[in-house]
Amino acid sequence: MAERLVGKQAPDFTMETVTGNGAEFGKASLSDYKGKWLVLFFYPLDFTFVCPTEITALSEAYNQFKKLDTEVLGVSIDSIHSHRAWINTPVDSNGLGKLNFPLAADITKSVARDYGVLIEEEGIALRGLFIINPEGELKYAVVNHNDVGRSVDETFRVLEALQSGGLCPMNWKKGDKHLVAN
């Protein structure tokens, strides 16, 4: 039976990373994001077809995330060397080009497993997106089939709703009123 993650402390992680410009390797841990919001997203594999549409869209929106005191970290089961090669491959050749955030390598698949997105029999992750608050609590999780890309606009809508601190009805957008609890 699946364990609930939302409303609990996010599973801890430490993974090797490559910077968005493909120049440097490093490491990222959940503790590195303490005090900031984090959009942590999983994708199945480098050099695939739907993934670059999502990753580049999130990268193009990065300045908006920064304005909301939010960092972004992409994760797949590929190596940092594969990530680097994909970043350094031109967009017109199915590459990513430069990104505004790092990509992390979950070679052991342990992080994908901890976040409940690993397809064990295939050894790849589903498309999972998680919003973690500055205290490390997992506030939002969406997981979908690998055939369907996610929505940057919906990610912003949910992030702004979570940051608003109020009760937000369906389709709430920044500037809308909160519900009042009776």
Automatic annotation (TrEMBL):
Keywords: Antioxidant, Disulfide bond, Oxidoreductase, Peroxidase, Redox-active center. InterPro entries: AhpC/TSA, Peroxiredoxin, Peroxiredoxin_AhpC-typ, Thioredoxin-like_sf, Thioredoxin_domain. PROSITE patterns: THIOREDOXIN_2 (PS51352). The keyword Nucleotide-binding does not apply. Residues 4-164 form the Thioredoxin domain. It comes from the Bacteria. Belongs to the peroxiredoxin family. AhpC/Prx1 subfamily. This is Peroxiredoxin. It comes from Paenibacillus agricola.
